[in-house]
Amino acid sequence: MRRCSAAFLIIPLVIASAIAGCGGSDDNQPAYSNAPKIVIDSDFNTMGDDGQLFAMTTQLMGEGKVNLLGLCVVTGNDWLLQEEADALKAVERMGVQDKVGVYAGANYPLQYDVASIRAQQAANPNGYFGAWMRPEPTQQSQLTAPPDGFATSAKLQSQSAADFIIATVKRYPNQVTIIEVGPPTNLATAVQKAPEIVPLIKGIVYMGGAMNVPGNANAVGELNWWFDPVAVRTLLQTSIPQKVIPLDVTNTVPLTESVFNQIVNPSTGQTAVTKVYAVANAGAFATNTDIYDTLTIGYFLDPTYATQTQSAYLDIDTTPGEDQGHVRVYPDVPAAGASPQKITYVTRYDNNRFFNFYVDLLTRPVPVKFQ
């Protein structure tokens, strides 16, 4: 979240705090002020796919190619308390704590059945169930520090993630795209709380779902959409323009040893990002790790990164059990309850071009240099 420029300091404090995060004065705007506006809604991690996405996006912001208005966090990969700590360190690491605020969101899905989740875990021992795979921390002493330590100055914003989304969309009608790379509980909560924002959201770009491939949580569900299928269904049933990067394409974009080595041993010298990347992703290429959330920012900026797409009416199974998170794909005629519009999802990506983009952004100097 960007702070107001000095030109606004004469405004009374109560008003100034209400408009915190403004884009700057007309005569002293940074390069990103007029760039496409986004909010990242993420089940954040230090330097897995969510952390990589944030590092890449802030570098693009420094270049003036995107305007990141805020980082929202939601339980998914981990529990909210851990993700908050990782996100606060990330804004410090990138040197953007005065420009990008961190907003805490939902700690639990809109609906969930713990007994069913445990049964699904038992039935799918190789499945990835995110936060449900570990105890929920209840205090700071139970958190795991990022490799470079906890944040020392960055603090959570007082506004909740859902309220921040509502206020931001209303402030910038038809200008804000949500990069939705976690369970979409925060966004669904915002839409339920303030349905008037639906026609004001420019679009959503998800990483989520498994259209025509097996799931990575239970046998049919991809984690982000499996984690809160009620939130997914809430959003699919709106008129918001939506695009999806599903497992169908991420399964075809593996992290290779060559790419890993280019990042952890860059010719330009190591940075805080490359050092943490090396720790967080050590050996990842040897365990069939694919690239997930980071594909969204490439596709958002340039849809030609997608070399193959399909469009269909989509629905998702919200019933607890082995069909939880199963995406129903209707190519021609929607069934009752499916999305009212066809939604485009990516099935092939330009891997070589993307990895040039990926390596470049993750090896740039840190903190971010702004134009």
TrEMBL record:
Name of this protein: Inosine/uridine-preferring nucleoside hydrolase
SUPFAM superfamilies: Nucleoside hydrolase (SSF53590)
Top-level taxon of the source organism: Bacteria
PANTHER family, A to Z: INOSINE-URIDINE PREFERRING NUCLEOSIDE HYDROLASE, URIDINE NUCLEOSIDASE
Presence of the UniProt keyword Mitochondrion in the record: no
A GO BP annotation: purine nucleoside catabolic process
Domain annotation Inosine/uridine-preferring nucleoside hydrolase: ranges: 38-356
Gene Ontology MF terms in the entry: purine nucleosidase activity
GO cellular component terms listed in the entry, alphabetical order: cytosol
Alphabetized UniProt keyword annotations: Glycosidase, Hydrolase, Signal
Biological source species: Caballeronia insecticola
Signal peptide: 1-20
Listed Pfam families: IU_nuc_hydro
